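Input record, target 12 of the design panel.
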């Protein structure tokens, strides 16, 4: 049986372009024509490679979640002070989300965009958020071991606060005119942590 022609595009590059559209416009507002234009491929190529719009969304958000998780893990697991690694991560997010035109976190905006009864989306989002929470817990436990926070500090509750703060920062960054509020969020987090 003859094989079809080889793809004339890099799948990961094209998915990155889809991520940009979904992050900027949201799932519902992103049209197929807009996705095709941004991705630089034809309709047949999109359907053959990614399936329909929903399937493309899941592939795009899956890639985004993996890359985001890897970046967070790398930043939190750097040598040195675990608490300073958390501060550096949040400072990085303050800078990224404080820029004009910030699209925030694709997963966070998608949580707000989707119907609450869409179990497939909820499962995807919950899985990613749980993995990030677990990273925070591991980092905070290392901070405890190094005496940076109190031995009796509730690291699970703190990790959940960090998770909520990071998602809130990404959403606020979409509408704030400058990063002043985001700076306050980072300062507030570490004022609390310094008291632990």
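The sequence produced for target 12 reads:
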């Amino acid at each position: 049986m003859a094989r079809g022609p080889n793809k004339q595009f890099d799948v990961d590059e094209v998915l990155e372009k889809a991520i940009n559209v979904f992050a900027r416009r949201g799932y519902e507002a992103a049209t197929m024509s807009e996705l095709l234009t941004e991705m630089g491929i034809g309709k047949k190529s999109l359907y053959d490679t990614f399936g329909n719009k929903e399937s493309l969304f899941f592939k795009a958000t899956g890639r985004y979640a993996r890359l985001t998780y890897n970046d967070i893990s790398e930043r939190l697991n750097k040598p040195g002070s675990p608490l300073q690694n958390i501060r550096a991560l949040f400072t990085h997010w303050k800078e990224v989300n404080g820029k004009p035109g910030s699209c925030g976190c694709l997963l966070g905006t998608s949580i707000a965009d989707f119907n609450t009864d869409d179990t497939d989306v909820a499962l995807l989002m919950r899985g990613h958020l749980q993995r990030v929470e677990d990273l925070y817990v591991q980092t905070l436990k290392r901070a405890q071991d190094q005496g940076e926070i109190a031995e009796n500090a509730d690291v699970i509750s703190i990790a959940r606060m960090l998770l909520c703060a990071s998602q809130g920062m990404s959403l606020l960054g979409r509408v704030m005119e400058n990063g002043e509020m985001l700076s306050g969020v980072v300062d507030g987090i570490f004022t609390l942590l310094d008291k632990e």
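The chain is about 70% helix and 0% strand.
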